[in-house]
Every structure is written in C-alpha cells, then in structure tokens.
Amino acid sequence: MNKYKIRIAVVVLFFISGSLSAQKQAERWTEEKINAWYAKLPWLVGANYTPAYAINQLEFWQNDTFDPAVIDKELGWAQGLGMNTLRVYLHDLAWKQDAKGFKKNINTFLSIAEKHKIKPLFVFFDDCWNAEGKIGVQPAPKPGVHNSGWLRSPLKSTHDDPAQWGYLKAYVQDILKTFGNDKRILLWDLYNEPGNSSYGNKSMPLLKSVFGWAREINPSQPVTAGIWHDNLKELDAFQLANSDVITYHHYDPAPSHQKRIDSLKAKGRPLICTEYMARRNNSTFQTILPILYKERIGAINWGLVDGKTNTKYAWDEPIKDGSEPPLWFHEIFRKDGTAYDPKETELIKSLTSQANK
C-alpha cells in the first residue's frame, strides 16, 4: 500500500472512530418516550429537602454528620402529607472527600425514601449562594440570614477553571454509573439555576458539559435542568432543547405562573415545577398547588422542615437578631414536626388524596 492510500485509510479510520464515539452519547428522549414515562407516574408532589441538621449539602452528606434517623423522621412527615418525591442536592466535594462513603450514604437515603414511598430527584450542580467553602466542619448559621452557609457546586474557583473539570466529569459519571438504573430514583436534575450569582452565560460551557457527561452514561432515568430566569435566554434555550422532561422555577403569583405553564405546555413534554412557594410573594400552596393539580404538573415547593438553612427567612430580608419572621418565606414544618400553617398541610393532604383515588 502506498503512502497516499495509507493516509486515506488513516483518515477513514479517524472518522469511523469519531462516528462510533458520537454514537455512544445517547440522544434526548423523544416526546413519545418521555410522555409515556410521565403517564405511568402518579401526580408528583414534594419539596426541596435538606435535613434540619444541615446548613448545606456537605453537612447533609458527610459521614460525620449524615443522620439517617433524622432523615427517616422527616421523610415520615412528608409521607404523611401524601408527598411522593423530594428534590435533593448532592455536592462534588462530598464525592471528592470520600466517594465510597458518599455513595453509601446516598444508598441509605434511597432506602429510607423507598420506605416512605418517595422517589427523589438528585441535583448535581448549583450556581447559588456562597462562592467558596471547604470539606469538614461547616459554619454555624448566621442568625436570620437565608441560606447563609449554602455552597455553590462546583465552587467558583472550580467553575471558572475548566482545567479542573476532569474530576467533575468523574464525579457525575461515577454517580450515574452507580445509580443510573436504580428504580428508586425519579430523575436527574443536572444543574440548578445555571447563570445565577452573576455568572450569566459563563455557565454555558459547564452546562453543556454536564449534559454531555450524562448522555455518555445514558441513565435509565430522564435528565433535566430547570429554567428559572427570563433574561438568560441562551441558557434557557439550551436547557429546553436538551432536557428530557421540562422543569422550571416560579415564585410569582398565580396569573404569572399560569402564563409560564401555558408557554411551556407548547413544548409537548411533561412539566415539573421544581421550585415554587414563597409566601411573601403570594406564591403559596393555596394559590399555586390547585393549579398544578389541575394541570397535572409536578409540584415541588422549596423547603420541608425549618432548620439550619434558615429558609424561613426571605432571600433579601435578613432579621439580624434571628427572631421569628412575621411570615415564613419557605418551609412547611417546625422542628418538632408541627405544621407552620395547618390550613396548608390540610390542603396538601386533600389534593394528594384526591390524586391517589
């Protein structure tokens, strides 16, 4: 074979190899597939969940503080409302510290959730709140400050440095390889509020990367990333074009929320609202949950139990002495399991009971 033919053969092999590699990355679920998946589910109702003992994702999952007994108790309160899902945040540093221990704790959490007939969705990345943090003992809450210890994932120093993303890929793909066929998991929320914390489109490369990493593993559960801000048009467009099931956040009153629903229904895919319910904003159980029930849209409010995250305080209205806010912003239960507002819990139980008939 002459040199010219050898070069041609090398080029052909290169393109064949590239084509085969591309085929390994799974495609977005078709409308038919995702709608068939959703049709088999009950009406999804749940909360964004962090145990009362944890100020952030690390205190939730690290071996020194992970507390199955507390989780079991609090998930029992969720089950008592008829909740059947919870949105739960992971963190790359928990995996970096002790991958084996982290996955063991995730498995324990899933066993507790299954006991309470709850199928959680897990969140990998998050652009919200503190830019930096560290493994180990976490800070005490700042009195009256909403999410004073919550951590971005990855931290800003890693988010801004693609040279460090090799370990992020290893983290995401290890979790997906371990749990990607686990029937106890509802779906994977790959990235919470990309572009928050003034990142804007700087988060697009990581957003694209995490979708690619997930598609390479091709879990049996759907993947998504929820839209949350109308001004982040490029990010929104990518999320809507690549999510299997459409998820979104909305903390405004009912008329605005209905407009968001109407616009997203045109996409032809199931909808899950993965964040709502801020009482001060008139996004409440009484105003929003009946709409989501009527439309059969998954309803996941922010917050279950008042705890170290301090999310009963509003985002932008700290109470420096840590006294009780006149109106709780988020959360359903006090630390002792009693309802903040019994009318709310009765409404939730009424709608979940109707949905299960």
TrEMBL record:
Pfam families: Cellulase (PF00150). Keywords: Glycosidase, Hydrolase, Signal. It comes from Pedobacter metabolipauper. GO terms for molecular function: hydrolase activity, hydrolyzing O-glycosyl compounds. This is Cellulase (Glycosyl hydrolase family 5). GO terms for biological process: polysaccharide catabolic process. The keyword Signal applies. Residues 145-302 form the Glycoside hydrolase family domain.
